[in-house]
Structure formats: C-alpha cells, structure tokens
Amino acid sequence: MPLLAPLIPALTPRGYGYQTAAITPVILLLSDILNHQGTALLLPRLLDSLIGCGIALAVGYLLWPDSWHTRVGDRLADAVADTATYVEDAFGDSVAGARTRRRLYRDLSVIRTEFQRALTEPPPMGRRAAAWWPLVVAVERIVDATTAARARVRHGAARPSATEVEQVVLQLRELADGLRNVDVLYAVRTDLTGPAGSVLESLRQEVAAARAVAQPS
Fold it and tell me: pTM to 2 decimals?
C-alpha cells in the first residue's frame, strides 16, 4: 500500500486511464484487508478487472477504428467551416454575426474538451490528437482575430473589401474540406496578401499560421 498509494496523485493528471491503473490495485488490496481475507480474493478480483479492461478496449476502441473522424476530426472540420461563415457574416450585410460567434465559441469549447480526452487514449488516437491539437488552438485564434477586427470596424475602422474577405473565407473552406478526408497532416506555407493596414491583417496572419501548422495530406 505505501508503494502503490502515492502513484494515484502522481498519475491522475496524466489522464483517466492512468488514474484507473493506479487506483484499481489499491482498491483491491483495501477490499481484501477490510474483509479479513488476506490475499485470497486478490488474484480473482485482479483477473476480473483485467477481463473488464480487455472488454472495454475491444468493444469500445478496437472495433471502432474510424471513430476518430466522427468524434473529433469531423467536429473540427465543421468548426473551421463555421469559422468561414462567421468571417463572411462579420464583414458582410448579415446580422447573424454575433449569433454565429456564440455558437462557434460553444462548439470550440466542446472540441477542446474532446481533444483533451482523446490525448489520453491509446494510439493511434492519442498520437493523432496530439498532432492535431495545434490546429484547435489556431482555429480559436482565428475566431478571436475575427472578433477583434469586427470590433475595429464597428468603432470606425475601414471595412475590408469583399475580395479580402473572400480570400480568407476560401482558405478556411479549403481547409475544412480537406480535414474531413484525412488522418495525417503536414505543414504547408500559405501566402495571404492584402492591403497594408487593413483590419484583416491580423486575421490573415492567423489563417496562414493555421494552414502552416496543419494542412491535409
């Protein structure tokens, strides 16, 4: 017990799986001690726990190799597509910009939580989540940059031209379409140019950074 118990707080921050691996033997030992059975029940209970772990891995993970896209990849692609719509609404004639922004932030919060959970899963999902995580951060920065640029326009800055907006929207939609069909990402340099001093200058930089961080392969 003195050897196993300190592993619980040490491994808990690393994820639910590590926490479970640390807590399970401690609970089994405590149960046997409190029941005054010595170690007579320890091995049968440990075997039952290992069988349960095997069932969880087989039924909940190994039989669903494509669950990455439906649970994480497609959600991120949808968020990128919604970001493109938000950019259009923010600088166009639509009045739906604020509503789109609220929905985007809510969806990105869910995606962040899902990615953080996926990071603790066995490979290959854990590795994929780690590789895609910078893109999640990049999309959040794009939404923030769009909100900031929209605020500047509302406070008197020059409204960007339709061509500028369409250039950013096109890049985002291309990225969203690509994310739906791939598992592997690679860095690509994207050149987004526009008038100096435009309110979209920071947004263009963030979009270019996102495309550079992760481009569908």
Answer: 0.71
